[in-house]
Write a structure and sequence with these properties.
Layout lengths: L1 H8 L10 H8 L6 E4 L6 H9 L5 E6 L2 H13 L3 E5 L14 E7 L4 H5 L25 H7 L2 H12 L4 H12 L7 H11 L11 H11 L2 H15 E11 L2 H15 L9 H6 L3 E8 L2 H6 L7 E7 L2
Helix pairs in contact: 1-4, 2-3, 7-8, 7-10, 11-12
The structure holds S-adenosylmethionine (SAM).
S-adenosylmethionine (SAM) binds next to helix 3 and strand 2.
């Protein structure tokens, strides 16, 4: 633990929370309520939520990143209403009693400290080991995954998770090159991808989409969101709020489909109100984007989409 705290203290970069006030308003924070922050990061949302809680209110936060957890442990030591737990939000239904929570926040994706620290291996601009794991103590690093993934799976991942039209070309080139020398460094991989692609004219680094895709794959990010939504469904008490902030369409689509599944009568059954409406367990409260002012001040908020739903009794 001491080592974790030191690692957190050495982090110079913070994380500017996205849609902070909007997310807290959407959670409809009750001073004595019980809340979950499923993605603590550096605790921007958690701290603001604690500021709205009274003495009997409680907040439990989760993160799978040990450095985020270390930062959360410091907050827990200073505020007895707050608990920090390390884990994947896919599993939070095992951590708390069913129907015990008045609001759950998910702020998906990676934090600024994860991107900014070269040694975490997320950035194609800062040279570091090719890691990209949010939890560096579990699963395969990006280097290990790239060393053994089949060409077909690699192409599919880069196409589906990166929306990269040159996915097959990139996958073929990576598989040919790795048999001579494995990829171990972020900048090495980024430069290699750039070298097999035509010159880009959109101002985006040519490796952007492939890096995003590899990150999503090795962290099983979309599978975690699907399970996290089901877990939230179990944990929310009646009138409890689900609030999600997504940064790309793959994340947002999963949340949208989840909310639709539980808030809309199946097509064709609208004329059968008793049976259909009895099965509905969520009320869709809509979506919102960051304000122009926030986008100007924090470019990361440009792609953010917040969705809100309320648990029905
Ligand atoms: C965008 S940051 C959250 C920032 C936070 N709201 C703040 O204000 O500091 C996302 C965080 O979620 C964590 N995370 C992503 N997927 C996760 C998962 N499946 N389980 C637990 N934590 C996850 C990441 O490690 C990262 O710290």
């Amino acid at each position: 633990m001491a080592q974790q705290l030191n690692r957190a203290a050495s982090v110079s970069t913070g994380h500017r929370p996205v849609m902070l006030d909007a997310a807290l308003d959407a959670l409809n924070v009750q001073p004595e309520g019980h809340y979950v922050d499923a993605t603590f990061g550096r605790g921007g949302h958690s701290r603001a939520l604690l500021a709205r809680l009274g003495g009997e209110g409680r907040l439990v936060a989760f993160d799978r990143d040990p450095e985020a957890v270390a930062a959360g442990m410091q907050l827990a030591a200073a505020d007895s209403r707050f608990q920090m737990r390390r884990g994947n939000f896919a599993d939070i239904a095992d951590e708390l009693p069913a129907a015990s929570v008045n609001g759950i926040l998910f702020d998906f994706g990676v934090s600024s400290p994860q991107l900014d620290q070269a040694e975490r291996g997320f950035s194609f601009l800062r040279d570091g080991p090719l890691d990209m794991r949010m939890d560096p103590d579990g699963g395969q690093s990006a280097a290990e995954w790239l060393a053994q993934v089949s060409e077909t799976e690699l192409a599919d991942v880069i196409y589906t998770y990166g929306d990269e039209k040159y996915s097959r070309r990139i996958a073929r080139a990576i598989v040919a090159r790795r048999s001579e020398e494995p990829f171990t460094r972020t900048v090495e991989l980024a430069e290699f991808i750039a070298s097999v692609l035509p010159r880009s004219h959109d101002g985006i680094h040519p490796a952007t989409r492939a890096f995003q895709a590899i990150r999503i794959a090795i962290n099983s990010e979309l599978q975690a969101i699907e399970r996290g939504m089901d877990a939230a469904h179990v944990l929310l008490a009646a009138q409890g709020r689900l609030v999600t902030i997504s940064f790309h369409s793959l994340e947002d689509r999963l949340v949208k489909q989840f909310i639709a599944r539980h808030s809309r009568a199946p097509q064709g059954s609208r004329r059968l109100p008793p049976a259909a409406s009895a099965a509905l367990t969520l009320r869709d409260l809509g979506k919102q984007r960051a304000s122009d002012e926030e986008v100007a001040a924090n470019p990361r908020s440009r792609s953010a989409v917040m969705r809100v739903a309320e648990r029905l009794a």
